[in-house]
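haha ok so turns out i had the wrong file open the whole time. this is the CORRECT one, sorry everyone. sequence first:
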Amino acid sequence: MAVAAAVTIRPVWSVDDRLLFGVVAAAGSFLAVFLLFPLATLFLESFRDQRGAFVGLANYLRYVETPALVDSLWNSVWTAVLTTVLVIPAAFVFAYAMTRSAIPGKALFRAIALIPILAPSLLPALALIYLFGNQGMLRDLLFGHSIYGPLGIVVAQVFYTFPHAFLILATALSGADARLYEAAEALRASRLRVLRTVTLPTARYGIVSASFVVFTLVITDFGIPKVIGGSFSVLATEVYKQVVGQQNFQMGAVVGVVLLIPALVAFAADQWAQRRQVAVVGARAVPYVPKRRPWRDGPLLVFCVLVAALMIGLVGVAVWGSLVTFWPWNLALTLRNYAFGSFIAEGWGTWWTSVRLSLWTALIGAPLIFVFAYAMERARKGAVLASLVRFLAVVPLAVPGLVLGIAYILFFNAPANPLVFLYGTLAILVLNSIVHFYTVGHLASLTQLKSLDPEFEAVSASLKVPVWRTFAAVILPMSLPVLLDVAIYLFVNAMTTVSAVVFLYAPGIMPASVAVVQMDEAGFASPAAAMATVILLTSAAVKGLHVAADGWLSARTQAWKQR
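then structure:
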């Protein structure tokens, strides 16, 4: 009797497959070590006492039984909701003016609206103190109310989160099919009905996404409530009190986990909204070109001028405050507040630390994120691993900087951790910043890679050209503008962030954003405003170089797009 031997045909892994799979595995290892393991350590620490013994839910019960801690959760939620309710309509109108009107000066208005992104979140809080604080110039306009507390937090957060909402809503409103508006005009539909049945439906998921982004930014921000919150406690400042003030890392871990929950809920809701989004502009769509309508453009121009004036006004007050000799008793202008060595031990060294931190974050983070994204997008083997790493790559978007900072303390400061040598160095600040801002760079890289036809790799493989040469000779030059965008994004955010690094700095490596907090705590309001101004000017200068470099790169690497 003949016995048929079953032959199992195993898939053949080429050299390119092994290389791409190895890069995906490296990406997974990087995110596991610098994101997943620290968060797991934070979660486990919340179930232990100060001696390391397992205590179950005792810490969480103590949290619930402490009125001040429970109040901080409620305070965080309702201020975040109120800020969102105020920001979204204003940002929508501003974005509508930029995309659906014919007002003059759009480029200028857009640039002014993005100024808060270049400054630390503490800057608007400091400006509000100069205006409405106990010795503020306009304090009488508050009719006895105090700017220190929820009022100041909400007003400063509106300024801080406005550009983030504007960017999302402008993108949502920029995609419009002119045929829909022409049909509505032919049917003599009222402007209100066009807004309700055409404009809002096409932008509804952008509105949802912007709402959750604003909510998450407010509920996780540390700088604004720290400077202007007064005795009004929120989750972010409560974490700081538990860890820095009381050295209670276990309760800090509990508050960190609680702080993570609203951010995760908002992130999950945003992902749900994005999955339900459908294309609103078809292949046959006609680009919408706004016509001049004085009855519409006039009020929108007035609104944009008002928003721009408020933006410039707050920044201008902060800059003016940085030049005041001794607020509020001596208003003579001086540059002595920029002699930071008189107010903080590290002096200008804090600025240099931030520049080094930002440069290393950009120079290491941008290429690393892009290469990892390329491997995930082009890998043909190991689909399960690639899917898992893709999930890990979007997790940082839902993790507040304070939570990641506490997690790094607990994980990297453990004596048994072989990476303990990183703790207290600039390297851990760089790694923390890369991970904290990883997701946006990853998504931008994926968007670029999805726009490039995989046939590039297929043709190269047929010609026996290794994938790394195709990447270096074709993919990378075509993607240089996006790579530069990611680098600038990482630089500016590393320069301005407070929450991501406030727990991790050591003597000699204090970032400038943390120095603003330290000087404000010590009562040096004008030097704090001066340091915030220096951060703003540095970010603006780098952004200006980015614009020039982007034009130069586009002329030399994107000529193929020109007809």
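The radius of gyration is 26 Å.
again sry for the mixup
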